[in-house]
Amino acid sequence: MGQHISEQFDIELGRIRNDFMEMAGLVEAVVRDAVNALVHHDVELAQQVSERDAAINRLEVTIDDLCVHTIAKRQPAASDLRMIISIMKACTDLERVGDEAGKIAKMARALASSAYPRDQYADFRTLADLAQNILSRSLDAFARRDADAALAIAPSDRAINELYRRILHDRTEEMRADPANVDRALNVIWAARALERVGDHAKNLCEYLIYQVRGDDIRHATKVLPA
Amino acid sequence: MGQHISEQFDIELGRIRNDFMEMAGLVEAVVRDAVNALVHHDVELAQQVSERDAAINRLEVTIDDLCVHTIAKRQPAASDLRMIISIMKACTDLERVGDEAGKIAKMARALASSAYPRDQYADFRTLADLAQNILSRSLDAFARRDADAALAIAPSDRAINELYRRILHDRTEEMRADPANVDRALNVIWAARALERVGDHAKNLCEYLIYQVRGDDIRHATKVLPA
Hints:
The structure is a homodimer.
Chain A: H1 2-39, H2 43-51, H3 53-74, H4 78-111, H5 122-144, H6 147-177, H7 182-220
């Protein structure tokens, strides 16, 4: 009977993890498409990003429900419980990454009718690469419960913040130099800020994982990771 | 024995709710002080806001731990479980409201050395009143588990978004009119955006509460609130 319950728990946990990875895949796709829509002035692709928001929101609610039901029915031990709660929190962050992709798509539509900038959005592209990279690595670490990988990710967030500040600085200079640049510069700033927020959410995923593993370890006294 | 467990559960729940209200009080205070620091160019007050961030973060971790321990030890029924999980999610939002207060404080420091704007930050003050009002009402509704009050709050968030867009529009006009306005206008935009985010987090609190109550009600089939 104990084994039966444990098998049921594993099945439900497997379903939660599958849905989570499906949601992660969707979210990574909308970020990628939103960035491409912006740098290629592709209004149609931007529109598609906005249309996929509902599917992401639905997955968040589904995962949330599965998690609550699993906790209520299976009454998992502290370590399993903390893992499920981490997934619930991670879902909330993923949903907000989807929202940031929506903001980038909105800026893509606003920018599509303006002239291509001289730098071909070079800094923005670099920032987008960094943000997509940290998101992908954080999701990998989260899926594999790899706290060491999560710990190694923090410096990437600092690099994103630095580049974001440079973009902010350079676009502000542009606005000061010529008021005609104000609208385009602001739109690029908003889109860059959304990418900076994607980096923050990726870092949150890592923190949930480290906290989860560290919390377990303190309780079970096997190994303590640095805070 | 069943009664003993139920009493223990009530005691732990009471402690979680107390800590949550303490955290809510701290967060409301830093938002208020950050706004005052900005409109009065008070660098010292802005500094105090930043220094209280650690206390808010500590409370978030404490509440989170209490919640996980209570779920693991007391194995609450679905409705109690959903309430505890709502509190955990609400804490995350409260902590981020604290972060937004920190951003306003940062802008307060940046603006303190510039000349007082002609409008005496009139729109910003109005936005701040709206944001503080929705935060306070959402926390009240959350504490009293008043889903009807939570449902009535949504229109306030729309008013905040509209005023934020007007501030964004007016400050953009200012930048177009004279490049000398760029820095001050941008700082006001960032601070206004932080207030707009406070409104979003307040709305999240309401959504957790409605979802929690609606979830309970669907399960217990007593009353169903509109989604």
